[in-house]
């Protein structure tokens, strides 16, 4: 964590150091065996393959909707409504949640940002605020029951049914949705510290 926050290593490099450290600890404690290493490698391979297949499917679906122009069409329709700031934020939140059911997070960001950013600036919000709102909205979309992208990853890791995972994610979904509405009503919650920093 120190290396990542200090800018000395990427998350992948830090994870590699963590794996090496675990191997060294296991070696010196004499708790590391060939069987344990084999089981760890097999588990990692299964998990990585599962996540990889989910990502491939999500990217394929995202590309299809992108070629059809559905995200841009929806964003343009919202722009033409001339809504009040709070109504705009509420509709954008629902819009992102809907897209999260059918698209991968980065694809949502790339396809909708050019249209939604001018709307947000015109409504009186800042780019910093919108960046935080987008992170919350996209992560919220990824745990939208029952088809959120992250729900399938958790389901694959735990082996539980998608219904159980969806129920478990519901409280977090509600909390994140409420927080998104709170920062829409009180944008100072997320802009206060950046304003202090940039005003110096």
From TrEMBL:
InterPro entries: DctM, TRAP_DctM
Cell compartments where the protein resides: Cell inner membrane
TRAP C4-dicarboxylate transport system permease DctM subunit domain segment(s): 2-188
Keyword terms of this UniProt record: Cell inner membrane, Cell membrane, Membrane, Transmembrane, Transmembrane helix
Keyword Cytoplasm: no
Transmembrane portions of the chain: 6-28, 49-68, 88-121, 128-149, 169-193
GO MF, any single term: transmembrane transporter activity
Protein name (database record): TRAP C4-dicarboxylate transport system permease DctM subunit domain-containing protein
Pfam families on file: DctM
Gene Ontology cellular component list: plasma membrane
PANTHER family: C4-DICARBOXYLATE TRAP TRANSPORTER LARGE PERMEASE PROTEIN DCTM, SIALIC ACID TRAP TRANSPORTER PERMEASE PROTEIN SIAT-RELATED
Membrane disposition: Multi-pass membrane protein
